[in-house]
Specification:
It is a single chain. With 105 residues, the chain is mostly helical. It starts with a helix and ends in a 7-residue tail after the last helix. It is 58% helix and 6% strand. A two-stranded parallel ribbon has the order 1-2.
């Protein structure tokens, strides 16, 4: 779901920095996004020029701190598990505060 959110935001012109907790997941997300964009080009839903611009707006950050630095919006997409959500929001709030942004509790 996070990949779909990132792709849709990028499609609408936003600059997106995605993040996942493992290097494997980050590399997989990047590869999947590129494959989905290529598929959209192949079936005529997206022009090659638009696809290239979209991909320039998306990057996969190596850390949560890097992902939120300078961001105006942070979106989480983690499993619907209370412990996972609580931990994610704690780390996200800390990263936002460290980046100089406001993090509402």
């Amino acid at each position: 779901m996070g990949l779909a959110i990132a792709g849709e935001l990028a499609r609408r012109g936003c600059t997106v920095r995605a993040y996942d907790v493992t290097e494997f997941a980050r590399a997989r997300a990047d590869a999947m996004l590129r494959a989905l964009v290529a598929e959209h080009v192949d079936c005529g839903r997206l022009a090659k020029r638009e696809a290239a611009a979209l991909l320039r707006r998306v990057s996969v950050a190596p850390s949560l701190d890097d992902a939120v630095r300078g961001a105006t919006l942070a979106v989480e997409s983690v499993p619907e598990d209370a412990a996972v959500k609580v931990g994610t929001f704690a780390r996200l709030g800390a990263a936002c505060r460290a980046a100089g942004g406001a993090a509402e509790e």
